[in-house]
Amino acid sequence: MNLLPSPPRQHHRHGGxxxxxxxxxxxxxxxxxxxxxxxxxxxxNHEQSTSETRVPPGAQFLLNIYQSQNTLLQDKWLNGxxxxxxxxxxxxxLNCDQVTNLQTHYSIDEYAVPFILELLTKQISQ
Length: 126
Hints:
- By secondary structure, the protein is an alpha/beta fold.
- The chain has helices at residues 14-27, 96-99, 108-125; strands at 38-41, 62-66, 91-95.
- The chain has one domain.
């Protein structure tokens, strides 16, 4: 039974949740958990409703997949953005619009799946 309300469909806020969960894990060392990898997909910051550009606290790696050039009215202001390149952890950033401007904030989740599966496969095989 899910007691938490689902976020509205028009605002994917999973990136903000990734940051918040990582922050919670880092603030509670008694959990004895390591964040080996983290992934943002067109992430939105919960506090500011802007692109999530902060590195998740305690994360050892970040894959950031985003679209930056919304051209459709349905996307409104929902663009992703690069994470600070001066990060202290290794990161891979993929701006889908540099490949082809076909992704929107609503379609990027499915587009990101092969990249996430590749990351998981590499992490598991190490």
